Amino acid sequence: MKTSYINYAMSVIIGRAIPDVRDGLKPVHRKSLFAMWEMGNTHDKAYKKSARVVGEVMGKYHPHGDSSIYDTIVRMAQPWTYRMMLADGQGNFGSIDGDAPAAMRYTEIRLKPEAEELLEDIEKETVSFSPNFDESLQEPDVLPAKLPNLLINGSDGIAVGMATKMPPHNVGEVCRAITYYLENPEATVDDLMKIMPGPDFPTGGVIMGTDGIKSAYHTGYGKLTVRGVADIDESGKREQIIITELPYQVNKARLIEYIADLVREKKIEGISDIRDESDKEGMRIVIDLKKGTHPQMILNHLYKHTALESTFGIINLAIMDLQPKVFGLIGLIEQFVQHRIVVITRRSEFDKRKAEERVHILRGLLHAIDNIDAVIATIRASKTADEAKQALVTKFDLDEAQATAILQMQLRRLAALEKQKLVDERDELEAVIRRLIDLLSTESHIRAEIARELKEAGSKYGDNRRTQITIDSTTIDKEDLIPNKQVLVCLTHHNYIKYIDIDAYRTQGRGGRGVMGISTKDEDFVEQVFVAYTHDHLLCFTSEGRAYWLRVFDIPEGSRQARGKAIVNLLDLNADERVTAVIPVKEFCADRFFLFLTEHGMTIKIPQDEFSRPRSTGVNAITLRDNDHLVHVIVTDGSQEVLITTRYGQSLRFHEDQISLRHRNALGVIGMRMRDDDVVRSLTVVEEGKLLLTITEAGYGKRTSFDEYRGHGRGTLGVRNIKVGRNDGVVTAFALSEDEEIILMSAEGNVIRTKVNKISIQGRSTRGVRIMRIGTKDRVVGVTSLSPEESQELQDIPQAEIIDEGDDDSTPDME
């Protein structure tokens, strides 16, 4: 059993499933092409019935089933299967939908010119031959292969215990790459990839990323992600996805059927119709989308769940010296070059021998013409042809071949012009012999000849690249499947987090009670609310001065009443560490900065790009002094004034250039000094055309011009910003324009949304107007703003009456 199975396995590996590294052909392909060549079934002759070709191959070289031979010939004539077709078919040879070809009695076939390049010079003893199955004929062990067929057309086969799967490449690129290698033997894979960047599939498509290509070219193994080409058409009444190219070896009909199944099972939503509009002009699959859908999201789902994105696993396995071996790119090129060196050497020796034999004959003929009278006399004096031949050999110092040629010479050769033709032929052949001797003198000359032939073939058969190659990641990330919509993110004091669709809240007038925005546990309350987009990065800064990264779409989406998810399940927080500042970031720029502020008024400025590399365990953002905590972080451009506000209503304005630029994990400097038990509440940028909005815990607020805050140096006490009651305190203060809106949230989870222009403008030492009615045990804990673009579709409610509670002097004037 062991011996029999090993013999069977080697027979499959060597004689059936794995291509030869030299000509890139399996035995059945080689035998089919050679049989067509022997039949004279070339591109410049009439087509021959496929059945006749199959019978010729089966009867002379390949005694197996006729279907396997016909399938081989059919595939060589399919433009979606072979990058460089080797057979020219006439009739129905199947389709990319998987339709079977017509029976062999109905179709016709002949060789393509490219296939003839593989067979050229085979009659010049360039390759070895072996007996066929019944030893009645000789068949080639390998073809001369002027073109590097293995790289151009690739190969696909499953043997016993091993398999090969080699991708096709562009003809012109392969020829240029090998030419470059011949001229630069020390060339690296990276050098060759500048000329031949990667596979080029007959069906086009897009290769996502170059890592798999580099791996295959270096090691012989690699994995490519190939996508079809699909465009989003928004010109009609309905948006459409139009697919014009598919990944290699993907069946179009099965793909359409599978997409329809996914739509029917509601695994992909938003597709109203799918149809195949392909014709002789090319492929066209049209997918109609429903109104209100996100075309890119649906396309990403198609990439994720269908063969519109496929994986091509590369295994560069081929036969060398009757043994299977895996090759990198340079190994494949070197094996082809070595094969061509042998072929050209044997061809040149053959041509040189034939030329020398002909020159030898010509010299004899010319010698006879020069002594024609004596030659004729000698022949006339001889009784027989053999006697004449012997007389010529003896009398004129000729050999038998020359004497035979003289006896066979026609009388017209005696004319002067005919003699000149013989002289010209002799001189031309002598020049050929000298060239061949020079060619055979060194291997470098042979390599130059290979390069010349490849340049010629590349320009003759090369065409434009069909497959695009991108340097993008091959993976569809989670964000590619999620719409980038605007949401409201809520974070509670106990670090529960969620996001809610921003349209869940309608605009209300100032002074309303709001709607329920979140249900909290006992002794918990909402601490931060802000607007972000689902694809944004959230940079989460904690009370301990650390930074963590979080994507908005990783936060659970909840209803208005949902409590959310504990942020410790999303971030790797330390014990007793709380998130105190969350900033949405679309990109990390070196010319923008994070300005940090601690509870005791310490501040530090760090470039954004120092946080551009997310780590799951977080990083140290700043170093804190004992008993201090990070409370606020803002984004600046390095040329702005900032304003700090404390709980008891003090504010300090200064320019940020007073804060030196530091690296991550540095210790800050004093930003603002405070008295008694006062603590920092907010930090905002002073912006021209905007006013400072201050909101208190009791639901009061006002807008104040920044001009009322004269600039002080960093590290001073500042001036009075707002009067607060005994049980009141500032929640936050930040710059807003006239046309923006704000959202307030209370500790009990109530939310109200109102326009900024309904809040009156007042001086520094006033209490402001009531914005939100607060219960006796409730207080405002979070405020965020909405730009006009963010709120343009929301309903406008008339401004409510200003409620003026009068001054409250319970807090001493600290100015």
Describe the SSE topology.
Blueprint (H helix, E strand, L loop, with lengths): L1 H16 L9 H12 L9 E2 H11 L5 H11 L10 E4 L17 E4 L1 H7 L9 E3 L6 E3 L8 H5 L1 E4 L4 E4 L4 H13 L5 H5 L12 E3 L2 H9 L1 E7 L1 E5 L6 E6 L6 H13 L6 E6 L8 E5 L5 H11 L3 E7 L1 E4 L2 E4 L2 H42 L1 H10 L3 H12 L3 H9 L7 H26 L1 H19 L6 E3 L15 E7 L3 E6 L13 E2 L9 E8 L3 E6 L3 E6 L13 E2 L12 E7 L7 E6 L3 E6 L11 E2 L1 E2 L6 E7 L4 E6 L3 E6 L10 E2 L1 E2 L9 E6 L5 E6 L3 E5 L14 E2 L9 E7 L4 E6 L3 E6 L13 E2 L9 E7 L29
GO molecular function: ATP binding; DNA binding; DNA topoisomerase type II (double strand cut, ATP-hydrolyzing) activity
Family: Belongs to the type II topoisomerase GyrA/ParC subunit family.
Keywords: ATP-binding, Cytoplasm, DNA-binding, Isomerase, Nucleotide-binding, Topoisomerase
Walk me through this protein's architecture.
Helix content is 28%, strand content 25%. The chain has 4 domains: 2-174, Topoisomerase II, domain 5 (Alpha-Beta Complex), CATH 3.90.199.10; 229-307, Gyrase A, domain 2 (2-Layer Sandwich), CATH 3.30.1360.40; 350-460, Topoisomerase, domain 3 (Orthogonal Bundle); 482-786, 6 Propeller (Neuraminidase), CATH 2.120.10. It is of the alpha+beta class and 815 residues long. The chain starts with a helix and ends in a 29-residue tail after the last strand. The protein is elongated and about 150 Å long. The protein has 17 helices and 43 strands. The strands form 13 sheets. It has a 4-stranded mixed β-sheet with strand order 14-9-8-17. The chain has a 4-stranded antiparallel β-sheet with strand order 10-11-13-12, covered by helices on one side.
